[in-house]
Amino acid sequence: MTMTTAEPVSQPAPPRAPLVEMRDIFVSFGGVHAVDGVSVDLHPGEVVGLVGGNGAGKSTLIRVLSGAHPADSGEVLIEGQPVTIANPRDAKALGIETIYQTLALAENIDAAGNVFLGRELRSRIGSLNDAAMESATRKVMGRLNPRFKNFKTSVKSLSGGQRQSVAIARAIHFNARVLIMDEPTAALGPAETAQVRELVAQLKEEGIGIFLISHDIHDVFDLADRIAVMLQGKLVGTVNKHDVTKDEVLAMIIMGKKPGEVTEKELEELHS
Amino acid sequence: MTEAAVPSATQGRPNRSLRSLLFAMELDTRLLGMLAALAVIWLFFHLVSGGSFLTPRNLWNLSVQSASIAVMATGMVLIIVSRNIDLSVGAVLAFVGYTMAMVQAEWIPKTLGLGFDQPYTWLVALGVGLALGAAIGALQGFLVAYGGVPSFIVTLGGLLVWRGLIFRYQQGQTVAPLDGFFQLLGGGPKGALGAELSWLVGALACAGIVYTLWAGRRRRRRYDFPVRPMWAEVVIGAVGVAAIVVAVWVANSYLWPPALAAAAGFDTPPPVGIAYPVMIMLGVGLVMTYLATRRRFGRYVYAIGGNPEAAELGGVNVRRTILMTFVLMGVLCAISGAIQTARLNAAVTNLGVTNELDVISAAVIGGTSFAGGIGTIPGAILGAVVMQSLRSGMLLLNVDSPTQDVVVGVVLVAAVGFDAFLRRRAS
Question: What is the ipTM of this complex?
Fold first, then answer.
């Protein structure tokens, strides 16, 4: 990368506010700074990969956005408006959907019950409309995993890939604006992984912003537009995928050094 | 991918094996197993007692004795399904029952000087009881859900507190007699529907079964879902209707005791019919089944039991749901308290002693799992009937009370152990 000297560039019209902006987020657990002043943003139709080693704080950061854990301080803005996300209900109301690494499924309930958990369809007198929920689930599953047929059994009896489909169905059925995917391919075989990748591309096309958390740098390079790297609770930096090599990102993950700060020698050491 | 392992309900004609027959009918095999176990117990006692178990009188008494435990067991299912426990139900029942007795035997007639047997007395007493039960449940539920105190501890404390408070009323003296209308809630020949109304209730129940099957089928058709084969619907409907007809016939075969009938001015003893407490139990069972399976509240209770974190992340208000299960439990304790005091025509201090154990046993024998997320209302009601059948059968055989306890204890552990074995094999 060459640094150009400062010269007035014709600026395009001021870009719209990002879809999501997390500013200066702090989260600590009993004195340990799990997230230490991190700021990231996300635009419509963009995939931002969030990478880092174990305990880097990426899941904790994302739990703030999905309402699973409150931040100690910091700001979250949706389309430029400051919002309060105190619990998962708040996040969903703002169109933020999450596919958790653990999938967060109630194993004793069937697929439709899980897809609609917390947002059940009801009849006029307030009874659950199971038939309508099953019908909608059949539709969304037809798009995600056409071979899925087990609509009457509890999720417990499903395979890993099928469960993943249910978790994804739950996230995309409600017209999400922001999708958080925490290790979406960790439990999947090659065919299913390919399906998820296709889905990410498709959702991106639809203008949904996606935070993709992954430990698999190849995944991230294939799917993400920008890559945010965390190390020990701090943001090392956010880089444009096309501006960096995988080795440079690895250096960020492992040594916390941005491209340019890292020497050729150190890059070679990564491979030894 | 193993989708192919589960055949669709529509494919194939009636198959030879029992398992596939049951599968096509989409019935709860666990419930069927319990019904079979109950049939074995009944036949055993009938044979061993020389034919005195399966008599209208004994079965009628059995139904009344099961009612108050069954009512509470329906609430205990939801408590245990959501991974909590309520040890205080016997004490809450006693405290609320005592309070209802005080309202009708002391406060309305004496303190307020309005006299006995006013037409509104029983309603006021019942209303006070239900409200008090709900309030106690709300307090305990609040401490569990919002206070973060384990339900075992909160309700263990409740067990001591509510029973202890009874003695504040009249130093623990028996409160009697109760209001004439209120007594009917406890059953007895007068507290029953009689022949005609019993048949009417039976007919309505049959219509309800047919309608439910028909409506469910129509709904699934509308969405183009697979439906049960027609023969399965007919079999289920026929068995249900037959069971109701037999039950009403048995209740109507039990006649008023001759002396009581003569005193009431009957020439020949009329049929007793279905007892009010049994009607209450059936009503509670229906409402609770609806709440558990057709309402959002019930869905949340099961989701919390299956995976509390998933429920929370799914946007379920976990705390409020837990609070509500305890409120419901308190109300059900009040209903059972009314049944028990009405039956005794008095409130005594040992009302409902060890009921918590019977209620928990009924729920657990009925298939409720302490791991959470699993359990059904009809199962718990059946569990209560199984427990009561054992007690009543042994009483017929003159088995003493400590030996009864030994048998019930063994059956409880054996039933749960067998269930765990089956589950392990299934998974």
Answer: 0.87
